[in-house]
């Protein structure tokens, strides 16, 4: 028979829609409105998982997000999702799920060997056991055995969304308190977001048979939901879990999509107030053998019964320390499930409860507890014993419903650094300090009971209204005319000695014995205790077990639970998928790509593009059949022997203008700026106040009060920020403005001995003769019809012209240069060739040959810095003792001794005797390459007191390889700079 | 993520801003005359108070203005801010 445990009537499922699904290969059937858990229970399937450590059979323990046991893998192939709580997976047609632990198959798991030998694996066993011969030997083996499920290897095929939202009030939880609060706030005109982790609004109103104002609670929920949905400015988010609260109330919500184009949606909500109406979670009970399938929370049994019309068993025993489980007994009895016994740890049970159950013929055992359980894949029998340990007989049963009291869901409050204290009356942790921006309603406000929840919801919403300057409306509250039993006085947690193990954390297989061991070994502070036992550190974060773990710690150490305190709850409240966090921000959308203004021309030229600081730039331009390496060398030689064109458009360009522009830059650069004449260019580094080089580049004086500053393409943002800070904060008296014009200008470098031959016929209105436009001078003219600025600067060591022109004419200009240059053999060259050219010249590349400690003197700029009389950024620091140390690392050239050995950037260098190792490093190679011009390997290195060791042989170390190399002057090609002056 | 009140643009996400350290830091009037200790104090030594702290922020992805604002280092509560005053003395 299909669904043998489904009741004939009742529940909120759609019986007209049958959904087939598979669990561990078995074909089963459920209804629309089921969760995977309720559908499994309807088919009598309790044993759904293996436990984390001992691989013991485990069942479905709860009906919600707090589930510690029923973790399953859902989906197949690229949609396989591990560690799903069966209680939160909505049943869909064709759903495939399986237990995630269990090898060779879940029904027969060889991992049970860990259970039979459990005495060998107490808490902390791996910290003690796997020290020899070393953790790295054991780790691969342990990784295969441990863990929860398997992430899919394929790319996630689903889409995820991310939405940002501002609102006045975020109501967390749409139970009675949350709904009442949202209604008041919406009527007052607040922009309200109402988030409920369940697919349906109503909370406990969906779980119990309740009447409000004489009508069934479902009708009231529908009414309020309808009103809220029709109110402008209200956003209703069912199936949405509030996962984390961060600074200034920034909140993340995770919404599950159903029949949507997206699978999950991450909401980032910035509310002005957060109203917590998150309710409470029933806690488990600790007793011998408390982990078997068929042992469930009493409220979960009731929820499966009333909401899903599922009987979790035929004969139930109820173990409790409070009144709420009696409601489960009454509901089970009414549904025709035999209630075999109620085991209540309290010696006093309210007379009306006893009476109601005695009428139903249910024996009540006050002052007693479960002494032992039996059953492998399902609980079969329990033994009841008195407080003194005396046996009160065994009872055959297939369902044990337990209740260890209720703990408010205070997690979100703790994310915002709210404090908790232990309330002995309710035997749980409640809010002690409410953080700014929070209002509390329902169970988290410490008010138990349906009517008080409704009242507190209204009260909290009114408080939020007043705080935000809204007039709270008058509302009539519905009166609860029929409600479920409240917990009443909760009994203390009791821990009895037993030969059977007693679990305090089902998810991580932590037992009472582990807790005792932790205390014996001195881990009796709650945070140490948690880490040693790993109690509360599983996927469920101890939602149903923390209170028991703290109570156990209190009992073992003889302290009051108030003195134990709690551990820290951290976001996210439930596990989140990486897909939702990344949303659309992966692949092409991971970071915006910037394209050169002449990108289309480069693509046409067959450029190999690479990402350089966000820019897609040509690395080289290989011809057909040419390797990138050959291409780079060909481009390099073309610049040395003919003419090349390089697209330097991403270079940072800042215009500095105003009467005090020269003074401003004079205070920034380590070289003289006042003395720079109009039309002249200078190269200089910029330092921070520590004297460390933070950028370099040329600056040109366009007019007495107008400068153009070039920064490295990666350093633009940093220098722009520095300039703005100096202007706005430090030197507001200087009359100067700075403006980033980087993207407005394209910049092409025409370099090589034939550069002028190419440009002279093309440039009108500017004499390019070396006398008229020498190195480090600029002029303006026209390239065809385009107005251009021409700067004679060189990063290649060749005569070189930088053509600046409006970015929108870039493609046209580049086309013209290549076209007209064809007879001269003009060659486009990429970044790699440029890097070779500059290395041959020994020009440092900022960030490659410098690091966060490099000062001007380290790279040969010490004399110029010392000669400048005026102050500049970082000047004073250059005189600090550490910067005067003659043993500082200095930039020098390096060549290998053996003709064939390439140098490796990053290789460490030793100056002296290198036989004795280890030794402190004397420096490292920063750049190295094969020079096609010189036909040998060359490099640059930062070496301790390098300039005083020129000519010496050093040893280079790279991944175990040794190589002899010689330190030389850093300029390998044309040291007299004759070529760039032509 | 903090939400920072820009005096010109209002409350915005921290991701739009760049932090700039203490709001008022007095650069020695003549750096070359400052002792190593004085210069180190200017460069490296910062107050780290529990409670109110005046600091600089740059609204980089907004109005691009630097401003000074007081933040409570315990609660992250901001008091309304304004332009940086008393910066580097000349």
Note the main sheet of chain B. Answer: 4 strands, antiparallel
Cα distance, first to last residue of chain A? 97 Å
Class by SSE composition of chain A: alpha+beta
The biggest chain-chain interface is: A-B, 26 and 31 residues
- Helix fraction bin of chain A: 10-25%
Distance between the termini of chain B: 36 Å
For the biggest sheet of chain A, the summary is:
7 strands, mixed
Series of H and E elements of chain B = EEEHEEE
The percent of residues in helical segments of chain B reads 10-25%
Report the principal-axis shape of chain A.
elongated
What would you call the quaternary organization? heterodimer
Task: Report low-confidence residues of chain B grouped into runs of 5 or more.
Answer: none
Question: Would you count the extended β strands of chain A for me?
Answer: 54
Q: Low-confidence spans of chain A: pLDDT under 50, at least 5 residues? A: none
Indicate the mean pLDDT of chain A: 93
Overall geometry of chain B comes to globular
Count every beta strand of chain B, where a strand is a DSSP E run of 2 or more residues: 6
DSSP strand content of chain B = 35-45%
The helix count of chain A comes to 25
> Numbering strands along the chain, what is their spatial order in the largest sheet of chain B?
3-4-5-6
Task: Describe the structure using short key phrases.
heterodimer; A: 982 residues; alpha+beta; 7-stranded mixed sheet; 25 helices; B: 90 residues; mainly beta; 4-stranded antiparallel sheet; two-stranded antiparallel sheet; 1 helix; globular
List the helices and strands and how they pair.
The complex is a heterodimer of chains A (982) and B (90).
Chain A: E1 14-23, E2 26-32, H1 36-42, E3 49-50, E4 57-58, E5 71-74, E6 81-85, E7 95-99, E8 104-105, E9 108-109, H2 113-116, H3 125-129, H4 135-145, E10 160-172, H5 176-187, E11 192-195, E12 211-212, E13 215-216, H6 217-229, E14 234-237, E15 240-245, E16 251-256, E17 264-276, E18 280-282, E19 295-297, H7 298-308, E20 315-320, H8 324-334, E21 338-344, H9 351-359, E22 364-366, E23 368-374, E24 381-386, E25 391-396, E26 399-403, E27 406-408, H10 411-415, E28 419-423, E29 428-433, E30 438-440, H11 450-467, E31 480-482, E32 503-505, E33 510-511, H12 512-520, H13 526-533, H14 546-557, H15 561-564, H16 578-582, E34 594-595, H17 599-604, E35 608-612, E36 615-620, H18 628-641, E37 644-647, E38 652-657, H19 661-668, E39 681-687, E40 693-703, E41 706-711, H20 716-730, E42 737-740, E43 745-751, H21 755-759, E44 763-764, E45 778-783, E46 786-791, E47 800-806, H22 810-821, E48 827-828, H23 831-841, H24 862-867, H25 881-884, E49 889-896, E50 908-910, E51 923-931, E52 936-944, E53 953-958, E54 961-968
Parallel strand pairs in A: 1-7, 10-11, 10-17, 11-14, 17-30, 19-26, 20-21, 20-26, 21-22, 34-36, 37-48
Antiparallel strand pairs in A: 1-2, 3-4, 5-6, 5-7, 8-9, 12-13, 12-31, 15-16, 16-17, 18-27, 23-24, 24-25, 28-29, 32-33, 35-36, 37-43, 38-41, 38-42, 39-40, 40-41, 43-47, 44-45, 45-46, 46-47, 49-52, 49-54, 50-53, 51-52, 53-54
Helix pairs in contact in A: 5-6, 5-11, 7-8, 12-14, 18-23
Chain B: E1 3-6, E2 10-13, E3 18-22, H1 36-44, E4 52-58, E5 66-72, E6 78-82
Antiparallel strand pairs in B: 1-2, 3-4, 4-5, 5-6
């Amino acid at each position: 028979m299909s669904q043998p445990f489904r009741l004939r009537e009742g529940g909120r499922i759609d019986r007209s829609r049958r959904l087939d699904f598979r669990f561990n290969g078995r074909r089963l059937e459920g209804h629309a409105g089921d969760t995977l858990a309720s559908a499994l229970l309807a088919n009598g399937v309790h044993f759904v998982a293996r436990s984390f450590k001992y691989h013991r059979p485990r069942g479905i323990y709860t009906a919600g997000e707090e589930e510690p046991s029923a973790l399953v893998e859902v989906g197949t192939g690229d949609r396989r999702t591990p560690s799903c709580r069966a209680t939160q997976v909505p049943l869909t047609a064709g759903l495939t799920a399986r237990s995630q632990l269990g090898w060779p198959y879940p029904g027969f798991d060889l991992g049970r060997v860990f259970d039979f030998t459990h005495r060998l694996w107490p808490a902390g066993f791996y910290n003690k056991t796997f020290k020899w011969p070393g953790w790295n030997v054991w780790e691969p083996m342990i990784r295969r055995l441990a863990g929860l499920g398997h992430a899919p290897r394929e790319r996630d095929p689903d889409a995820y969304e991310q939405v940002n939202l501002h609102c006045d009030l975020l109501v967390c939880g749409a139970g009675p308190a949350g709904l009442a609060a949202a209604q008041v706030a919406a009527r007052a005109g607040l922009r309200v977001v109402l988030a409920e982790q369940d697919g349906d609004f109503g909370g406990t109103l969906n779980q119990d048979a309740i009447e409000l104002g004489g009508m069934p609670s479902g009708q009231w929920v529908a009414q309020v939901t309808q009103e809220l949905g029709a109110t402008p400015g209200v956003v209703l988010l069912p199936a949405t879990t509030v996962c984390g609260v961060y600074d200034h109330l920034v909140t993340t919500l995770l919404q599950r999509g159903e029949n949507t184009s997206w699978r999950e949606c991450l909401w980032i909500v910035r509310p002005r107030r957060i109203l917590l109406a998150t309710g409470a979670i029933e806690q488990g009970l600790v007793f011998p053998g408390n982990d078997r399938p068929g042992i469930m929370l009493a409220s979960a049994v009731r929820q499966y019964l009333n909401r899903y019309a599922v009987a979790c068993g035929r004969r139930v025993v109820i173990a409790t320390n409070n009144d709420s489980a009696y409601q489960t007994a009454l509901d089970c009895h009414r549904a025709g499930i035999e209630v075999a016994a109620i085991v209540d740890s309290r010696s006093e049970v309210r007379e009306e409860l006893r009476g109601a159950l005695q009428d139903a013929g249910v024996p009540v055992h006050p002052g007693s507890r479960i002494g032992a359980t039996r059953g492998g894949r399902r609980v079969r029998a329990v033994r009841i014993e008195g407080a003194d340990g005396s046996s009160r007989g065994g009872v055959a049963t297939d369902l044990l419903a337990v209740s260890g009291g209720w703990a408010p869901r205070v997690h979100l409050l703790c994310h915002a650094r709210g404090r908790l204290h232990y309330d002995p009356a309710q035997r749980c942790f409640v809010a002690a300090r409410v953080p700014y921006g929070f209002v509390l309603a329902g169970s988290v406000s410490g008010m138990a009971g349906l009517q008080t929840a409704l009242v507190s919801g209204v009260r909290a919403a009114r408080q939020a209204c007043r705080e935000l300057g809204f007039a709270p409306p008058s509302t009539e509250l519905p009166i609860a005319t029929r409600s479920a039993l409240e917990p009443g006085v909760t009994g203390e947690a009791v821990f009895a000695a037993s030969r059977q193990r007693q679990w305090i954390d089902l998810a991580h297989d932590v037992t009472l014995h582990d807790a005792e061991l932790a205390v014996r070994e001195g881990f009796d502070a709650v945070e140490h205790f948690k880490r040693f036992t790993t109690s509360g550190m599983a996927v469920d974060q101890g939602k149903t077990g923390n209170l028991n773990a703290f109570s156990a710690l209190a009992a073992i150490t003889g302290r009051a639970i108030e003195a134990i305190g709690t551990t820290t709850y951290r976001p996210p409240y439930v596990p989140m998928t990486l897909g939702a966090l990344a949303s659309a921000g992966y692949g092409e959308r991971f970071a915006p790509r910037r394209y050169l203004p002449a990108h289309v021309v480069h693509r046409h030229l067959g450029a190999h593009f690479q990402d350089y600081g966000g820019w897609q730039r040509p690395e080289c331009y290989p011809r057909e059949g040419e390797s990138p390496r050959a291409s780079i060398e060909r481009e390099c030689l073309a610049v040395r022997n003919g003419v090349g064109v390089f697209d330097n458009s991403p270079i940072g360009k800042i215009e500095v203008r105003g009467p005090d522009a020269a003074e401003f830059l004079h205070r920034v650069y380590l070289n003289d700026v006042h003395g720079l004449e109009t039309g002249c260019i200078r190269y200089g580094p910029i330092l921070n106040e520590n004297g460390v080089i933070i950028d370099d580049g040329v600056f040109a004086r366009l007019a007495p009060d107008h400068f153009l500053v070039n920064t490295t393409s990666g350093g633009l943002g940093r220098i722009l920020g520095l300039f703005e800070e100096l202007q706005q904060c430090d030197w507001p008296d200087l009359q100067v403005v700075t403006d980033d014009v980087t993207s407005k200008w394209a910049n092409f470098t025409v370099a090589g001995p034939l550069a002028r031959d190419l440009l002279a016929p093309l440039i009108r209105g500017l004499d390019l003769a070396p006398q008229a436009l020498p190195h480090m001078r600029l002029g303006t003219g026209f390239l065809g019809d385009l107005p251009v600025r021409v700067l004679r600067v060189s990063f290649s060591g060749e005569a070189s012209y930088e053509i600046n022109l409006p970015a929108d004419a870039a493609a046209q200009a580049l086309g013209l240069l290549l076209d007209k240059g064809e007879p001269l053999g003009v060659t486009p060259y990429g970044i790699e060739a440029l890097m070779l050219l500059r290395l041959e010249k020994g020009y440092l590349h900022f960030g490659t040959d410098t690091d966060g400690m490099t000062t001007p003197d380290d790279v040969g700029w010490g004399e110029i810095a010392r000669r400048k009389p005026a102050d500049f950024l970082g000047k004073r620091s250059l005189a600090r003792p550490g910067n005067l140390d003659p043993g500082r690392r200095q930039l020098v050239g390096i060549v290998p001794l053996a003709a064939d050995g390439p140098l490796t950037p990053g290789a460490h260098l030793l100056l002296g005797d290198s036989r004795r190792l280890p030794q402190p490093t004397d420096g490292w190679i920063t750049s190295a390459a094969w020079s096609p011009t010189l036909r040998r390997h060359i490099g640059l290195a930062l070496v301790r007191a390098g300039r005083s060791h020129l000519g010496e042989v050093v040893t280079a170390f790279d991944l175990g390889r040794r190589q002899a190399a010689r330190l030389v002057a850093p300029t390998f090609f044309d040291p007299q700079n004759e070529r760039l002056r032509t | 993520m903090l939400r920072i009140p820009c005096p010109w643009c209002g409350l915005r996400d921290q991701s739009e801003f760049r932090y700039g350290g203490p709001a008022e830091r007095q650069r020695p009037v003549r750096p070359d005359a400052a002792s190593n200790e004085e210069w180190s104090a200017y460069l490296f030594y910062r107050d780290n108070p529990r409670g109110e702290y005046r600091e600089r922020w740059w609204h980089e992805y907004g109005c691009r203005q630097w401003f000074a604002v007081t933040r409570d280092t315990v609660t992250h509560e901001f008091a309304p801010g304004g332009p940086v005053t008393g910066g580097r003395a000349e």
